[in-house]
Amino acid sequence: MRRALAELAGAFFGAGVLVAVVASSGCEASCEDKRDCGPYDGPLATSGTDAGGSSSQGGGGSAGSGGAGGCDMSALQTDPLNCGVCGHSCLGGLCTAGKCQPFAIADGIGIGGDIAVSDGFVYWTDQAVGSGAVDRTTLDGALGVEELTNALTPNGLAVAGNSVVYAHSLGEGAAAVSRVATTGGQPTRLAEPSTPSSTWAVATDGTVAVFTDLFGTVGRTAITGSNNTFTTLASGEDEPRGVAIDNGIVYFVTSGNGLVRSVPVSGGAVSTVASPGGALFGIDAVDGTLVWTDQTSGSVVIKSGALPPTTLATGLTNPFDVTIDAQRNVAYVTELAGRVLQVALNGGEVTVLGQGFAEPYGVASDATAVYFTTDSRVWRVAKPPQ
């Protein structure tokens, strides 16, 4: 079981703000075409590394230099199997200045949207106009881009068991939430809010899926449902965006009036958790701890239980998506300005995992790596060593 993040609260909540920003390397990408930007613009990974991380790759460096397990201590700045510390694998990426660099696992996609990781696969929405799709690949990209279904301007998605649930447009001011098997096939319509509608984000607890509609609705549908079997949990909201489910509670943020709101997943009264007033976009929730992004103030904010919100990071440019890594007590955040960040939940460092990208959008993680989308690629970067 993941340790409750609420235990972190006592030491730092109140008015704490981050104290440092640490870049992942001294390298900065520069290019004329922003679609090709990124710290590593080489071929897709073919090394055969997997999500086993350092335990499966440990001790793989050059022998004979006295390091543990044969690790060459003099090569820690460049050895992708022992990057920064012995046994820390870059999982197929380069090691530069002792930091693992992001590398593309899917190339040539249209416009990267939301992203999720489940059971050895990475799933994402491709928002390309006229050729949108829900796609997947393996963690190392060896599968290539496999289209599960086409869709008109798909946005949020979530994976539950053998189903991918995703929000998408129907055209003519209409939108829906549908599901497709993780192996692809014929999609099934789950929810179609009354027009005008624009379904945005999706979250799931494994049994039900919840979604936001920019025209003011938050809804719930059974993943196994069909034929528009959905329940309205909230209505009249001002541009609801990101959504999360945690312990039977649905949390969502609004970009129109800057509220963090909650409602029981079974339905009931809608409550205001916080009212910062900015344009809020992304939110995640684990064990009663919420983390959200505020584009107006350029900040990442945390709230745990009954304690007041605390700013973790400031001075960001259009922070967008966020996902919590409970085991490491950090959150991963995309900045539309071009960076992917690791933000410590105890108010400590903000680490730049990658920079120089063209509008990083969705972000997700597994035990060893962080995955994110840009406007033409899907990327993977090994998590920093603990």
Question: How would you describe what is shown here?
Answer:
The chain is mainly beta and 386 residues long. It has a single domain (5-51, 91-382), classed as Methylamine Dehydrogenase, Chain H, CATH 2.130.10.10. The chain has one helix spanning 53-57; strands spanning 21-22, 95-96, 99-100, 103-107, 112-118, 121-126, 133-138, 146-150, 157-160, 163-171, 174-181, 188-191, 199-204, 208-213, 217-222, 230-234, 240-246, 249-254, 260-264, 271-274, 280-286, 289-294, 299-304, 310-313, 319-325, 330-335, 339-344, 350-354, 363-365, 369-373, 377-382. A five-stranded mixed beta sheet has the order 1-28-27-26-25, with no helix packed on it. Strands 4-31-30-29 form a four-stranded antiparallel beta sheet, with no helix packed on it. Strands 5-6-7-8 form a four-stranded antiparallel beta sheet, with no helix packed on it. The chain starts with 20 loop residues before the first strand and ends with a strand.
Summarize the structure.
The chain has 386 residues and is mainly β.
Write the SSE topology.
Layout: E1 21-22, H1 53-57, E2 95-96, E3 99-100, E4 103-107, E5 112-118, E6 121-126, E7 133-138, E8 146-150, E9 157-160, E10 163-171, E11 174-181, E12 188-191, E13 199-204, E14 208-213, E15 217-222, E16 230-234, E17 240-246, E18 249-254, E19 260-264, E20 271-274, E21 280-286, E22 289-294, E23 299-304, E24 310-313, E25 319-325, E26 330-335, E27 339-344, E28 350-354, E29 363-365, E30 369-373, E31 377-382
Parallel strand pairs: 1-28
Antiparallel strand pairs: 2-3, 4-31, 5-6, 6-7, 7-8, 9-10, 10-11, 11-12, 13-14, 14-15, 15-16, 17-18, 18-19, 19-20, 21-22, 22-23, 23-24, 25-26, 26-27, 27-28, 29-30, 30-31
